[in-house]
């Protein structure tokens, strides 16, 4: 009985480790798709004109992204794993189209350096969230409320155009998504099952989507600080 228990425990730990690896593999694949897509748009004058010469096409893309994230999150229980994966990759492609604007606003070298700063910060906080013994549950409500406040302040500043509010939201955004990276990592670790099946794979995929969004948003806020604007 003792040997059976040990073997079962080992298999459960191995399954959870595999699922965690899948979370980061899917997140990395999505980031790669986003980056390649953004670079492709940057190298295509025709695509830039299509996306940025009028507000309509860009606005449609933004709405489509929000709708897609909502659909994946709300319907994950009913979607097949294959369909959910395809929708996640589609979202990362659409996000690459919209994020291509950064190449018009910032120099390529500052984008690259900020990406590595983001990767290092994200990696450190994700490791902290995974290995810490501290329960980060209390962070969740605080960070979500702070995120809602950040969104409201950012929308207000569209009309106010306040440089002070711009920098307040920038540093607040960095702090919020640094915290969310650790919180989401610990939450994903606790939610993943100890058996590899379609349900646990879909939970891992949703975890990858959460960390992908944390990374992208952290990158964009850090780019405000470290990015060198084009003249």
From TrEMBL:
Topology in the lipid bilayer: Multi-pass membrane protein
Entry-linked InterPro entries: Bax_inhibitor_1-related
CDD domains: BI-1-like_bacterial
Tree of life domain: Bacteria
Localization (cell): Membrane
Pfam family, one: Bax1-I
UniProt keyword annotations, A-Z: Membrane, Transmembrane, Transmembrane helix
Transmembrane segments: 23-42, 54-72, 84-105, 111-131, 138-159, 165-183, 204-226
Family: Belongs to the BI1 family.
PANTHER family in the record: BAX INHIBITOR-RELATED (PTHR23291), PROTEIN LIFEGUARD 4 (PTHR23291:SF50)
Protein name, as recorded: Bax inhibitor-1/YccA family protein
């Amino acid at each position: 009985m003792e040997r059976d228990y040990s073997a079962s425990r080992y298999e459960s730990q191995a399954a959870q480790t595999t699922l965690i690896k899948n979370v980061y593999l899917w997140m990395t694949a999505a980031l790669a798709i986003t980056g390649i897509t953004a670079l492709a748009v940057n190298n295509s004058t025709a695509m830039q004109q299509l996306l940025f010469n009028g507000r309509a096409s860009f606005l449609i893309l933004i709405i489509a992204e929000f709708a897609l994230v909502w659909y994946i999150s709300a319907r994950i229980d009913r979607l097949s794993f294959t369909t959910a994966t395809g929708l996640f990759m589609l979202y990362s492609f659409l996000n690459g189209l919209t994020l291509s604007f950064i190449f018009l606003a910032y120099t390529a070298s500052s984008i690259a350096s900020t990406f590595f700063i983001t990767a290092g910060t994200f990696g450190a906080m994700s490791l902290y969230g995974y290995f810490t013994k501290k329960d980060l549950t209390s962070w969740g409500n605080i960070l979500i409320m702070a995120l809602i406040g950040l969104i409201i302040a950012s929308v207000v500043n569209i009309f106010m155009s306040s440089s002070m509010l711009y920098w307040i939201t920038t540093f607040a955004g960095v702090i919020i998504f640094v915290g969310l990276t650790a919180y989401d990592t610990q939450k994903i670790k606790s939610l993943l099952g100890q058996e590899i099946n379609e349900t646990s794979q879909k939970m891992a995929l949703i975890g990858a989507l959460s960390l992908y969004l944390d990374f992208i948003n952290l990158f964009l806020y850090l780019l405000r600080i470290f990015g060198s604007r084009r003249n």
